[in-house]
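thread from #wetlab-drylab

HS: before we spend reagent money on co-crystallization trials with glutathione, can we at least see a predicted complex? here's what I'd submit
DV: go for it
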Amino acid sequence: MIDFYYSPTPNGWKVAIMLAETGLEHRTVLMNLRAGDQLTPAFRAISPNAKMPAIVDHDTPDGPQTVFESGAILLYLAERTGQFGPQTPTERIAFNEWLFWQAANQGPMGGQLSHFVNYSPKGETYSHNRYKGEFERALAVMETWLDGQDYMLGRYSIVDMMCFPWAFIAKPLGVSLDNFPNVAAWRQRIKTRPAVIDAINLHKDAQFSGKATAEQNATLFNQSAAHLMQGQEKTN
Ligand SMILES: N[C@@H](CCC(=O)N[C@@H](CS)C(=O)NCC(=O)O)C(=O)O
């Protein structure tokens, strides 16, 4: 059995999609990020960065295996099931490239854009514009890459699951896909898959899944920083 630590956000959807696509047996542990579920010592033992998604696989020969970071989880699940992952050492290179690319570019730029769209004080445009431009730059990279192919690596894979969720919410982030026709067609192809529909709907009506207030967000940020600093003191 796999425990899936999840909240209905783009990073959570990546793993929810893989679990839905493969039908792997799991139980979902719904996290209230606004209440700080991610800051508990128990969760930080699973995910030291105090962010979800994370999994604990209890069906391993050496005892429970924890995995954090969406890209690492997707690769782990692809290896475990033999589905949607690299089939050869050469393919693995391209998988690593695009999984790392998403985690270092499209993901954080989308995350920061979301922050400034939702929480920046009125009239503060510099940071918003910076992240909007960077998010659009990531879409432009995908636009060129997707030219002539239906999926990021030719066939539907964990790379598509990794890159889809932030492209899925481009509109609420204030970014139109009109200038990115290849990305728009790819997004449409993925969004209509039954497993993807199920994953996007997973706990979408959780009471806390709406937008937090700027104050709630700031409080949580301070708590998170304080918790991580405390952890640091213990190890120094
Ligand atoms: N690079 C991480 C990003 C994970 C992430 O940012 N998760 C957010 C939700 S989308 C989170 O847990 N936020 C809680 C917090 O920042 O306190 C991944 O891909 O897994």
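DV: Strands lie at 2-6, 26-30, 54-57, 65-68.
HS: ok that's useful, forwarding to the group
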